[in-house]
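USER:
Try writing one entry.

ASSISTANT:
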Amino acid sequence: MTRAPISVVGVSHHTAGIADRERFAFPPDVARGVLEGASPDSLLLSTCNRTELYALSEPEPLLERLLAAAAGTDVDPRLLFAHRDEDAVRHAFEVAAGLDSMVVGEPQILGQVKRALRDAREAGSLGVVLDQLARRALTVGRRVRHETDLGAGLPSIPKVATGMARLVLGELRGARLLVVGTGKMGDLTARTLVRVGADSVVVTNRTPGPAAELAERIGGRAAPIEELETLLSAADIVICCTASQDPVVDRSSVEAAVRGRPPGRRLVLIDIAVPRDVAADVREVDGARLYDMDDLRGWSSEAVAPAAIEAARAIVAEEARSFMAWRAARAAVPTIREMHERAEAILDVEVRHAAGEDAERLREFGRRLMKKLLHDPVTRLRAGAASDDGVYIDVARDLFALDRETPGRLAEELRSRKEGEDG
């Protein structure tokens, strides 16, 4: 029997630059529509650096069309990657382990996988197989962090962003920090900058409540988004991390912010949002320095110890084999159920010929005997199905005549045969 394939199609920092990736950063209603258009067992993982659609029993071209349609424009097929079955499973586990991250070993990916799992459950798009895949991926991520040195001591995206700010400004003690938005990565980056001496922290956001909460957590103050241009003028470092689909900071605002500054006092903007919060042409403004997620790429990956990567990949390979074995064994369940139904049908026909109280005792005896007789075949069928890609199941179905007779037809045939013998 052939198992339904697991497929994943997506775009990531390996295949596309940020200008293309941000087209796949879908708002919640669009993401839900993508899940509704896929199979009943599907999951959408979306981070700053990737958007990946996993589905069961769907051809990759269909998934590609779903993603391209949601992106709302013509998509170059070369931007998309696709994996199937064990390759798809291994890819999911590598993502959760941080092996596929822009900053290798970064820990934030586990939270993003949890969110994808939660969103798929809430959308009603998650079936047994991909639910298990996502939960196993979380297990892989935790194992890699507990059992290897991957990510230990390496700069996370907040630390890399801090290094970039220091590269431009030098000493960060006393630097004035503006946080635009309340995203998790912005929160972490702001905390890192505060720890190294950034001062006078201001948080602004379209929704005042979350801005006030973040400002309180990091020891700053909240300000209305309507004051953004004034806030930019007073800042040395700007962290942008909103969920806006359009730029929040445009060129004219930055030009106004740098106008009249003392010579050498540059404005550093670190845009860690996808879609981007800062308009791309801000790069052309004298006196401002803009970094986006693509600029962060690879800063810390070069320092990853090969032994840590090798150990993490060994865990991924082990867990991928375990998952595929689980899938194969699960494929035996319908056959096992039919084996029991067939035995029950035979038992039912035979018991009908017993009289009175003997009938129920015979039925109970027959069930106990049936379970004992089927125990070893069922155990071996589960084990064999996990290693032979369906051949073992096909043989079992042939030996037990499961493809030729349904239990109902079998019962009718046995009754007719018995009546003929009695006559």
Notes: The mean pLDDT is 83. The longest strand covers residues 6-12.
